[in-house]
Amino acid sequence: MKKQDELFRLIKLEEKRQRDTLMMIPSENYTYPEVRAAVGSILMHKYAEGQPRRRYYQGNEIVDQVESLCEDRALEAFQLSPDKWSANVQPHSGCPANLAVYNAVLEVGDKIMSMYLPDGGHLSHGWQLPDKKVTLVSKIYNVEFYKLDPVTRLLDYNAIEEQAIKYKPKMMISGGTAYPREIDYKRLSKIAHRVGAYYLSDIAHEAGLIAAGACKSPFPYTDFVTMTTHKTLRGPRGAIIFCKKEFEEAIDFSIIPGLQGGPHLHSIAGIAVALEKTKTPEFKKYAFQTVKNAKELAKYFSEKGLDVVSDGTDKHLVLLDLRKNKTNGWVVAWALEAAGIVVNRNTVPNETATPFYPSGLRMGSPALTVRGMKEREMKLIAGWIYEIIQKYSNIQTPSEKDARKTFVSGFYKRIEKDKLLNDINKKVVSLCRKFPV
Ligand SMILES: Cc1ncc(COP(=O)(O)O)c(C=O)c1O
């Protein structure tokens, strides 16, 4: 029992951390008490391999209804006709959802074309280095990446089209983790279909914003859409694959027996709760405010002369390139965390550093918006972030290994004692208390 006490003590500590810090990692969010109730429910006791009403286990009369309800709610949330679209709510998370799409329609060795990871793409789109097949996807399929225009740091659709004509992929993927602008789904769909490729749009990040109408929808143009359910959608950890009706059987078969065993029915129930919430006026308000809040952050940083990638944002995230300030994402992210502001260090377009000590900082507005914060609070927070960037400018992480080790341990001590960070932390905690989770 003592050991269990230790675990629950840690959960309490994490609860306090989430309450008293500013959660600004764009892929994180607070979910609803009802979602937590569903995920923690007795549904986790049940095995249900297969699809609703086509199971390999007995005793599924009720969980069949749970899963079907979730599928129906998924289609409704994105205003899709069940005659044309199908939703599979079983993927355990975003990476397996993407793998399941490839596994459904591609053969070993087929070609995938996706966004370059350091420019904002995602690992699960087949990331590989020139001399190392990093992901399983890159070992199974041939992958080529498209990059952003190095000057505008935006997608260059003409260049993508030229590349696709030459490369002739069988699958084109859009979406990623750090691209702050809307994607022209129509144009990418045209390019993919022109070269005979399937088009998969991964909207892991934007799902909630799209459901609410705060960002454009890819559904009119794509063959497949994948999304995680735990980011802007505000559900539990999980994922959904949407596909045109003609691929329904292939997707179901790809999930089980292709990749997974029993579905996590407790998570599926939580997803069903979150999907229903997307239809409420409160959710729409949250989604539109999330975008307004991110825009406010970007505007503040631009006015202060920071290098905001793509000069702004259309959605929930802002990406800063810190090279102009002669510092990097590692240095600033740790300093911000010491002040209670939790963001990501991130690679940026035209990256010259490593992913562990990258040049950029990625931050998002969804979780702050859930707490009820608006433009006024964004200005305040952006001001604190700016002050910290200023103070931690002209600091470089040494590239030589031993020097770096000494630098890192000294740096942790330095931020612990920094009066500016401690003072800002007090203001952060006070702001958090004003906007309780
Ligand atoms: C674009 C994109 N696709 C897929 C994923 C993978 O999701 P998961 O971490 O649930 O596997 C992520 C997660 O950050 C993502 O941003």
UniProtKB/TrEMBL annotation:
Kinase is among the record's keywords: no
Function: Catalyzes the reversible interconversion of serine and glycine with tetrahydrofolate (THF) serving as the one-carbon carrier. This reaction serves as the major source of one-carbon groups required for the biosynthesis of purines, thymidylate, methionine, and other important biomolecules. Also exhibits THF-independent aldolase activity toward beta-hydroxyamino acids, producing glycine and aldehydes, via a retro-aldol mechanism.
Alphabetic keyword roster: Amino-acid biosynthesis, Cytoplasm, Methyltransferase, One-carbon metabolism, Pyridoxal phosphate, Transferase
Protein name in the entry: Serine hydroxymethyltransferase
An individual GO BP term: methylation
One of the record's GO cellular component terms: cytoplasm
Site (Plays an important role in substrate specificity): 230
Organism of this sequence: Candidatus Woesebacteria bacterium GW2011_GWA1_39_21
Domain of life the protein comes from: Bacteria
Cofactor(s) listed in the protein's UniProt record: pyridoxal 5'-phosphate
InterPro entries (UniProt xref): PyrdxlP-dep_Trfase, PyrdxlP-dep_Trfase_major, PyrdxlP-dep_Trfase_small, Ser_HO-MeTrfase, Ser_HO-MeTrfase-like, SHMT-like_dom
Gene Ontology MF, one: methyltransferase activity
Subunit structure: Homodimer.
Enzyme nomenclature, EC number: 2.1.2.1
Xref: NCBIfam families: PRK00011.1
Name of the gene this protein is made from: glyA
Catalytic activity: (6R)-5,10-methylene-5,6,7,8-tetrahydrofolate + glycine + H2O = (6S)-5,6,7,8-tetrahydrofolate + L-serine
Family classification: Belongs to the SHMT family.
Biological pathway: Amino-acid biosynthesis; glycine biosynthesis; glycine from L-serine: step 1/1; One-carbon metabolism; tetrahydrofolate interconversion
Subcellular location: Cytoplasm
Main location as per UniProt: cytoplasm
N6-(pyridoxal phosphate)lysine: residues bearing it: 231
Binding positions for (6S)-5,6,7,8-tetrahydrofolate per the UniProt entry: 117, 121-123, 354-356
Keyword Transferase (UniProt): yes
Serine hydroxymethyltransferase-like domain span: 3-385
